[in-house]
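Sequence and fold
=================
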Amino acid sequence: MTRYTPRPVEQKWRAAWADAGCDAAERDADKPKFYVLEMFPYPSGRIHIGHTRNYTMGDVLARYKRARGFNVLHPMGWDAFGMPAENAAMEKGVHPGDWTYENIDAMRDQLKLMGLSIDWDREFATCDLDYYAQQQRLFLDFLDKDLVYRKNATVNWDPVDQTVLANEQVIEGRGWRSGALVEKRELTQWFFRITSMADELLEAVQTLENWPEKVRTMQANWIGKSHGLEFEFELKGRRAKKDEKLTVYTTRPDTIFGASFVAVSPEHPLAKRMAEKDAALAEFIAECKRVGTSEEALEKADKKGCKLALHAVHPFDQERKLPVYVANFILMEYGTGAIFGCPAHDQRDLDFARAYDLPVTPVVLPDGAEADGFEVGSDAITESGAMINSSFLDGMPVAEAKEAVIARMEDAGTGRRMTNYRLRDWGVSRQRYWGCPIPVVHCEKCGVQPVKAAELPIALPKDVSFDQPGNPLDRATEWLKAECPSCGGPARRETDTMDTFVDSSWYFARFCSPKAETPTNRDDVDYWLPVDQYIGGVEHAILHLLYSRFFARAMNDTNHLSDSAREPFGALFTQGMVCHETYAAFATRDGERVDPADVSETDDGLINAKTGEQALRRWLSPEQVSRTADGATELESGAPVEIGPSTKMSKSKKNVVAPEDIIDQFGADTARWFMLSDSPPERDVEWTESGVEGAYKFIQRVWRLVQEAKDLPAGSGEPTPLLKSAHRAVDAVTKDIEGFRFNKAIARLYEFAGEIGSKSSDPARREAIDTLVRLMFPFTPHMSEEAAQLLGAQQMLAKSPWPAVEAAFLVDDDVTLPIQINGKKRGEITVPADSGADEIERLVLEMELVQKHLDGAKPKKIIVVPKRIVNVVA
């Protein structure tokens, strides 16, 4: 009996599948289609084993669905534009394209080692000219449909990457890639009119029944539809203009009598005007621009304001004057960029009021609370209740009070009911080279003009330099020269390129016809779309998915997709991460080793607690560390190593494992099996050497069973216990794969293998082992193919049908019942499944073990629960 040797077997079957064209997809009207897609990777250099988990999940589905008779499309590509390539160009002196394509070659080779059943003939990178040429065509079509426009806008500016960032790309006030503090600048930008579809995008979220509820909620919250009141405050004071008014928006008009201040965004026109003659205010606004600009950053920042030399008159009490501030927590992009603050019932307003000693007047009394002495503490009151301290609103419920305020202001002509959205149009201009050029030119005579479709593609120039900050396209003298398509005069090309989120917002459609001379081939997209199963990380739950949903609608409106593809992803699954413990060594700046036990973390960083010197952390990869029962040391130096908690694999912390290392030692099937066996697919899984070794041992165990079975005779087809177990396994594994319960499917296969091992004389043993191999095929395709061949399979499993279930074999003729005597289990009895309670009672009383416990006495009571349990009370 020989051991299973993964490397030659896996090479053999990868070549066989490729030669047989097992993974190639073509339209076939006679088969149901299944389009499975994992979010495509950025070609950053090398993949680690954690990257392969979602691709393995998709592959399990692809192989399973093919076996079930589906026509499967399972493609792969590369999200290849973006700043990292430009950073590499600056750091290493290479062209971004050369760096990107070298990485793609390396990563493709790594992925192929995993045995993924991908149609590689459909592969493309978003930096391929053929791809972004069609993206430029879409841009022109969107422009013609008024889905694209250009305007001056205050933008988030990354001073290091020297490019504009979307609000979502600003994390805690810093650029998501560079980590630099983001500034506010006013630039002319291109925008996609995503807000024109806000209502449809929001309403359709509720139809996405096969998406995780948390993702649907995140999408709805990001669109952020709200109903409220827009009204005007009259402004008074020495700096106020005659009859000047300030328009504010609120979703809580019921709290108007609790207002204690009015505030505007630092970008509000009023703030800018007042800053012209107020140096302190101008400096405050400049400070706000240096701090985070995202909603998340503003939410976390200390609430600060600068008081203006004017006040606002309360709309229902002319004697009541409210101070006006410029406040750092107000977004110009939401509502009117101005609010009234009711501290008692909004946490941000309360924090601000406490900081500036402003009144806090509760106007909503929560249900069940006493009005006498009711005060607001450190938390704002957000519960519903009845109005107090609110003049004509007193006693009203909140909803009624909202309507009453809106009605009074609409009658007076000072306010109007409004619907607002948190969602803003998508700014897609980026001031960088490595992106899709925007296909317009600037003519002094005719202004901005779209290029003619016949002139596409507008290819990126290759002869560019990265020896100075800024956009290299601004310095590409010859490339900049163009002819105006309107007047024929000289023009200058647009140097902004598109946000890389554009590239990933329609790639799923391009996979249907990657070589088409138009963005899509309608016959292909009408057949394949929508994607039946989309798999990716929850970190893309908002931006990528929302932008893709917008793009699908825009492509439908411009006749590139059918109505049925307006929702591009029929089902969505967000997988958990692969985690690994971290390892770190410490040293002083002079290189002297520091024991991890002596390192303390302070506000000033890490220090050696014994000497007070600064300590530096150096992350180590698993192969650089020696583990013992007493801890860990660095292999090269012998220095003690700190073992950190298991966390998401990341190159920055070096807690990654290369696929090649695992494949060389254990094989790709072992990696696939372990990643899906140890945790539900939506949860994180911890990569451990012991877990991988356990998976490898199981594959060897199955291989031994196969070698034992190859010379066994075929069974008669009679329903033996093992044959019944095989059909139950097929039924359970089928349901678990369909339900994305891969870990449960694998647990059932472990159990089934155990049953085979324990029933060595069952006549259906050969059939059971053959069934085990076929059920394992989506998870361990290489070993399963080799095993099936050894068992005499007439065709490769990649082209074979899924094992069928005979319903009759799922029904047990007998059932085994536990027997409890006085509450303790004492034994079991096996009876025909259709036995009645009286018959079971008679058989139990005849059992020797029951007679022994009764000791000649009659039982006080016998309780029989058919097919469940027998209870005897002595």
